[in-house]
Design goal:
By secondary structure, this protein is α/β, with parallel strands linked by helices. The protein is built from five helices and five strands, in the order βαβααββαβα. The protein is globular, with a radius of gyration of 15 Å. Helix 1 links the parallel strand 1 and strand 2. The protein has a five-stranded parallel β-sheet, with helices on both faces.
């Protein structure tokens, strides 16, 4: 199975790891995972500073290689909300509750252009100790760490 997932992944927190883990599980041993990593220009729309693309990519590579997944994978630049998901031949996209609307829009555009729909696999957002989502914004604000532990 060919699976796509995308994000800014900065900092790489437990919610992102859950998204990535699900993508690799879904792909299966003979599958392929395409990770769209937002470019610096596209990521600049965030409300908090973002580390450079190459640093974020290095963190992803370290995490993925450390998991020893028996799956082929690639990281590609994501310069808009859709990346290669509109034109690529793939089977599934893995999203969080927060990014589900983008996956629905991808399928709508794919249908309109005569491409087949892809399966959407939504994971539940990982909760911090205070039962609110772990998010990069909350981490940047100093509310929680990358594991969801309350910092103040």
């Amino acid at each position: 199975m060919k699976v796509m997932v995308g994000g800014t992944f900065d900092p790489l927190h437990d919610g992102h790891k859950s998204l990535l883990n699900r993508s690799f599980e879904l792909a299966g041993q003979s599958g392929h995972v395409v990770i769209g990593l937002t470019t610096d220009t596209f990521a600049s729309r965030k409300v908090h500073p973002i580390r450079p693309f190459e640093e974020r990519k290095a963190d992803l590579i370290t995490y993925i290689t450390g998991k020893h997944y028996p799956v082929d994978w690639v990281i590609e630049p994501l310069s808009d909300r859709f990346g290669s998901a509109l034109a690529s031949d793939f089977d599934a996209i893995v999203v969080s509750e927060e990014t589900l609307p983008v996956a629905v829009e991808i399928n709508k555009i794919r249908r309109e252009s005569g491409r087949r729909k892809v399966d959407i696999h939504q994971i539940t957002c990982v909760l911090a100790e205070d039962n609110h989502w772990i998010s990069s914004t909350r981490i940047y604000r100093g509310e929680i760490d990358i594991h969801g532990h309350i910092l103040h």
